[in-house]
Amino acid sequence: MRIDLHTHSTASDGTDTPAELVRNAAAAGLDVIALTDHDTTRGYAQAIAALPGLDRDLTLVTGAELSCRIDGVGLHMLAYLFDPEEPELARERELVRDDRVPRARGMVAKLRELGVPITWEQVARIAGDGSVGRPHVAEALVELGVVDSVSDAFVPDWLADGGRAYVGKHELDPFDAIRLVKAAGGVTVFAHPLALKRGRVVPESAIAELAAAGLDGIEVDHTDHDAPTRARLRSLARELGLLATGSSDYHGSRKAVRLGECTTDPEIYGEITRRATGAFPVPGAGGSARS
User: Fold this and answer.
1) Do 150 and 133 contact (CB within 8 A), yes or no?
2) Which of 92, 155, 165, 178 could tie 110 with a disulfide, CB 3.0–4.6 Å?
């Protein structure tokens, strides 16, 4: 089985619609894909509706990537198979989403102060119906020729945490995120925990505290982790009793990452589905949802 547990659609900052994402995952030979848009579940219905029309079996895992912050360091928490209607978690997701527009407008204002001829209309056009975020501002910088790629915008000179044009937003405490996702029947995995190229990362001591609070796993195999980092994270997962996942963090054409570039072991996927009680994977025609 080929299992990719971290992807994004136009419901947040990807370039594939949820239906296109599902079709592209099937074409890439994946057996399981998780839709984990930032702080939103808006893509679920379209992705599920696309499953029966596929040429091969594909199972969809519903999820989200939650924006969190601890001790001034931003981190992302992947949440899988939670009840999307659970009111407390839904309310927190809404607070984060509502803060995205004023935050993006603030970044545009800072960039203009720095002499960049960016406009809010340009960023809004790029974001479309998605939850606007830094990648949309970064793509505007690419369009303007300020940087060569979206990744090049995530540096201190521009949009990195604490960078010249950075603006904060409402973010969850990760301990609260774990509690809320658990209460909604879901499973939590710390996304790309040692992606140093993105900026500051939390110390291993904090990962241990999150594990003690109920964190289920850490994303080990990720394109932002080099081989020594993956080895250290795999060892840390064993030490802390955490599940070790792998995934592409696919954003469509916005990033040079392919679907299935990193994958999750089927046994780990099976354990995630066994722990979840808020929702279940959705099989395509003739597919099998559970390991």
Assistant:
1) no
2) 165
Q: 98 CB contacts (<8 Å, ≥6 apart)?
A: 170
C-beta of residue 233 within 8 angstroms of C-beta of residue 260? no
Write down the pTM of the prediction.
Answer: 0.89
The tokens describing 107, both together, are 């970044």
pLDDT in tens, 152-205: 999 999 998 889 999 988 899 999 999 999 999 999 999 999 998 777 899 999
Report the first-to-last Cα separation within the chain, whole angstroms. Answer: 10
Name every residue whose Cβ is closer than 8 Å to that of residue 140 and which is 6 or more positions away in sequence.
118, 122, 123, 126
258 to 10, 28, 49, 137: CA distances (angstroms): 16, 9, 23, 22
Identify whether the C-beta of residue 7 lies closer than 8 Å to the C-beta of residue 24. Answer: no
Residues whose CB falls within 8 Å of the CB of residue 124, separated by 6 or more in sequence, listed in order = 132
* pLDDT tens-place string over residues 200-234: 899 999 999 999 999 999 999 999 999 999 999 99
Contact 132, 123 (CB under 8 A): yes
Amino acid at position 161, single letter: D
Query: Residue type for 130, please?
Result: G
Residue with tokens 């658990």: 182
Question: Distance (Å, rounded) from C-alpha 65 to C-alpha 79?
Answer: 6
Say how far apart CA 43 and CA 63 lie, in whole Å. 10
